Amino acid sequence: MSIVASPPFLEAALGRPATHTPVWFMRQAGRSLPEYRAVRGPGSILDAIKRPDVAAEITLQPVRRYGVDAAVLFSDIVVPAHAVGFGIDVAPGTGPVADSPLRVAADLDRLAELVPGEHTPYVQDTVRILAAELPVTVPLLAFAGAPFTVASYLIEGRPSKTYQHTKRMMHTDPDLWHAVMDRLVQHSVAFIGAQLDAGARAFQLFDSWAGSLSLADYRRFVLPHSTEVFTRLSRMHPGVPGIHFGIGCDHLLEAMLEAARGNGSSTPVLGLDWRTPIAVARARMGADLVVQGNLDPALVLAGTGPALEGTDAVLADNAGHPGHIFNLGHGVQPDTDPDVLAAVVHRVHERTSQETS
Questions:
Q1: What pLDDT digit, counting tens, does each position of 93-109 carry?
Q2: What is the pTM of this model?
Q3: Catalytic residue numbers?
């Protein structure tokens, strides 16, 4: 009787030695792949997400092309808000756009609680297809937007550099702010939970724009809500690894790790962008810290040579620690050469397999 090895991604996420350092890329399923453009179809990305056969195929494409160690569901962080009828779409070249932003208490009525079986059955259908088709050694990652980042899109009405409306609500109407965040906690938990129920085996909570906040504001207005997401999910799915990631969050990392630990029973992985060295993160938060990251995406755009030099530097920074999931420090850019990413995957597998053999 043959014994199937535990997926390297799950081993590393739990801080245990694996056959090699696992690697996947945020936004690995998307615009950088010609095969994606061939099947994506016209219209909003949200339309493609509603077609389980298409969404599953797009999710599988980078697994086939690169040999990555995890698949990430082809979806978007505004799917829950869109599905409940808030009135938000993803505009090509812009990002999430809401014609009627959430600015007053009455607007919260448009942000109903998410019931996955009613609002997003297509997402669960996609996950079930993937759970059946993915190799057993390649887990599927569920994901959702963290409450703050989703709130910023709903309140600003579009991507922002200043987050002026979001911060105004925090400081002038904290009751409404916390009501919005409570609703978005429910969305995150229900959305990720439904994906895990359907066959996903780990998850990532994207708080992409939390870095726009001071530490004091993060702790006051965001930390309790992000903590609640991880706490609820750890109770619903004990032992399932959860990754917490944001951009420009070096000043928030300790607090973000605190959130990811939930009530103490979760298995947290801290995502790092390219600004924080892995060794520095472990010096600050403990030698047993499990991290994900953190090659600068700009080095991938610079070509194979710089990308591989950067890959080697990230592996050296990790210094053979078993708790490392290799990734970029942000998502794959649309004009990325897929051959460069393939070379990065090969280099990580080659170098770390030699170390652990």
A1: 888 999 999 999 999 99
A2: 0.95
A3: 27, 31, 40, 76, 153
